[in-house]
Design goal:
It contains 6 helices and no strands. By secondary structure, it is an all-alpha fold.
């Protein structure tokens, strides 16, 4: 996913009133809630796109992982969501 793709996703979230600006916004999103409350299930495409966009646009996801060169972005997003969720609820 390149910068233009990220901008398009962000614009889509803004247009639908679902812009995710903070970690609290991300973890409160209904699609994300389904995953964090059932982490043994695969993450939905909608939840993955929201989380990927959030972490990448905030500079939290390593570039090599985002481009699938040095890591799996799918696994990184799922692991990070679980980690952030545990910190958020404690």
């Amino acid at each position: 996913m390149n910068k233009k793709d990220i901008e398009m996703l962000t614009e889509a979230y803004v247009e639908t009133g679902r812009e995710i600006r903070t970690l609290k916004d991300l973890l409160s999103d209904p699609d994300i809630q389904i995953f964090v409350k059932n982490p043994e299930e695969d993450i939905s495409d909608a939840a993955y796109e929201k989380a990927y966009t959030y972490y990448l646009s905030n500079g939290e996801m390593p570039y090599g992982t985002a481009k699938a060169r040095s890591g799996d972005p799918y696994m990184w997003v799922m692991d990070r969501l679980e980690q952030d969720w545990k910190s958020y609820i404690s």
